[in-house]
Protein: ATP phosphoribosyltransferase
Organism: Elongatibacter sediminis
Amino acid sequence: MSRLRVAIQKSGRLSDRSLGVLKRCGLRFAHSKDKLFWFGQDFPVDLLLVRDDDIPRMLLDGVCELGIVGENIAREVMLERNGGTGLTCLRKLGFGQCRLSLAVPEDLEIGSLQELQGKRVATSYPALTRALLGEQGVTVQAVELSGSVEIAPGLGTADAISDLVSTGSTLRANHLRELEVLFRSQAALYSPSTPLPDEKQQLLDRLLARLEGVLQAAE
Ligand code: PRP
Ligand code: MG
Ligand code: ZN
């Protein structure tokens, strides 16, 4: 009997909503609180609780068939690892909205992205940032940081940042000004682009039909 594995964020901004949408699809899991593998009851879909940044790689590596992750992270990993391909976005989920924005120090007199040509940009999304800026003819030096990106300009290690913004309060607290939105992101359900065996595909189709009902009822 085939089973599917779906990876979601263990703890963070997407965790509760990710689990919530799966439960509303009728999935039930047997778990103890701290275990990272939850066995699916009734419906053969098991849950993996992992770091969100690891989800796209796990899908590309075939560790699981489904994952809920921000579009920004999926795009970044596809660009880094796979020429921008390899994962299929099955459904945007309508939560976890944020934007990847280029921001500069408040007091820096800069009016357009073009003025950043050749500058140092701190980011956790180097490949996505380079690709999006490249579309606008701007080439930058990406300075990669895995978090607290907003601190870099004040430390003098970057001229600008490219990071996720949701309320904008982290930018304000660090005296940064949003110059331009590069990419709008939300949580989405992804699978590897390679075909699944028939039995797994049938399971996936049943799950997607339930998901469609759940999401349409919520709209
Ligand atoms: C995210 C993001 C920004 C901040 C934006 O960081 O990287 O730093 O939230 O949110 P705001 O616009 O509402 O202030 P997170 O809290 O995930 O920490 P991290 O960057 O260290 O991972
Ligand atoms: Mg994270
Ligand atoms: Zn951050």
